[in-house]
């Protein structure tokens, strides 16, 4: 994760936060580390009323980061290697530099304003040529950021929260107008909690984080679809595929209707809702509402009376260990390069997670009011689409480790990969790489990738779905699958990740 915070600095890093699902084989028990950013103590419900742009970019858009304290908590609980050895490869990257990836280049082009940031301009901008560096250029992190990593290696993960580094960090944030205080940093806690555990078919169990992650949305989708008993023949013919995709899309829509009621579980009583959407009875009840011949274009049909804003960004890592343990972790600073600036003397790219909260008075394009469940409160953590998950078989052995990046498309892409692998019996490469469909209610249209055959597009359109092909990257899935013979891995081609095995 330290290395990834450099190689994918546009998406994650010390200025952000994460959700992590951990499975310990010896205990046959799973855990969630909630290191999601939180609203500062000085934050108020209406702080962006009338000026929503400030929630997206600049110092007020920054939430209290949880990344490092989350990694520190995980290391103290389960770590085996010395802490400084975990940071050492990142310090080597600081020394040697690394090649700018195409994904990183594409992203800097989308946020040209970062060239006004001293640290980011040094890394990414060629002032002599008046443009950002090209993909393949060897770039080096700034001295400020490398010095921060060195201090973290020497003094531990609390250094950014209550050490001398914290003092520098707060000075940097105060200088630009952030409302984050030293007390906000000291009081931040990464929480190790019990994940949602849901039985799937054949004795499998899915573990995924509770809200404010979107693990409950992933569970909701799979629960609704489970009763259809999908198998390889469900996508045999064009007609089969049209019906199957229609049912999947309807499940997406009902699940995203549920999403409008979610928020930080520490601020809301969501026990009944989680119990409902994870129960077989709810799955059956919702399935009976799905009309195989047509869809509805009313958000109310799917239970969406308010809306939550979409999120973006993120990076994901999936790991299986030789002792049977597993980790699935998704990290984010929200939008590309977060709040659009780095801290001057500590070099940290800051999140813009405050934009993930709902704000009063800001209706969406469909005239719906923002969800009260996700309004800003001091110390609250905003709703996220992240859902790093682990699937375990009836013997307690890890079968699948999966997660994704890509904002609101995370949950649907993860669900599709699980469905294709476990139910359609595709290879892990097919399950991850195959063209995807997506629906999130807002907007009321199906977004589909190149590769969905035209007859299927036409068939879905005939059932009333608005069909729009998206040309962007979409979600990027990282998945591992284990059976009795081997471990199979696939890093999504959509972003250029990689897989690796260690003896």
TrEMBL record:
Keywords: Hemostasis impairing toxin, Platelet aggregation activating toxin, Toxin. The active site is at 314 (nucleophile). InterPro entries: GGT_peptidase. The keyword Cell inner membrane does not apply. Signal peptide: none annotated. GO terms for cellular component: plasma membrane. The keyword Membrane does not apply. GO terms for molecular function: glutathione hydrolase activity. GO terms for biological process: glutathione catabolic process. L-glutamate binds at residues 36, 332-334, 356, 384-385, 407. This is Uncharacterized protein. It comes from Manduca sexta.
